[in-house]
Request: fold
Amino acid sequence: MRFSKKKYQVKPNTIGYLYRNNIFEKELTPGYYEIRDWKNRTELICLPTTSKLITIINQEVLTKDNVAFRFSFNILYRIIDGQKFLSKFSLNNKVPYIISEAEQRLHNLAQIIIRNKISQYESETLNEKRNELTNLKTDEMINQALEFGIEIEEAQLKDLTFPRTIQLLFSKHLEAKIRAKSELENARTAVATARALKNASELMKNDENIKFFKLLETITKIAQKGKHTFNIGDLNQLTK
Reply:
């Protein structure tokens, strides 16, 4: 008896999932296949094995101190269990629609988890630590994605934007902090200079050698301004 065969192709960077009589039969790696199917009851569904990027933009949330802001984030994910993945969706749709639905579910669960995480910060703290909040991936997000056969490789903050009025307040606050720091440094320098001058004054008051060199310095400066005649008696008396 001659069996009819169906030809299937599994492209690179994908895995094929062969179904017979609507029941999963086996996985197929990239290549060409001829499958016996005399009743025309086989179907091949191919899923990508590479990572895919989702960008979620313009998410609005309130900080802990009730300041509204918008943020965007990226999710990098990969299907690691194709059988589990396909079991969660209707296979009446084509693969692009199945993946689109999966990404929408991933979008929703990540959105809720990340919004809850970011809303725990106060506005000033969030603004100061925005560069530290790059990794938004959480254990809860990872575990929920695994239920769909998906591994979340990255969940990163893309940008964070406060209203213009809040940005101006942050700018003024930062300016005030910088000015206060500068004034503090100037005050420390002034105190250190005054202390050094006081120490030098005390040193000169009691050191005869310094008094002598100071006298010579003064005479030299006077002599540089013209012709002068100096009558110097007892130097010990002059330096007192």
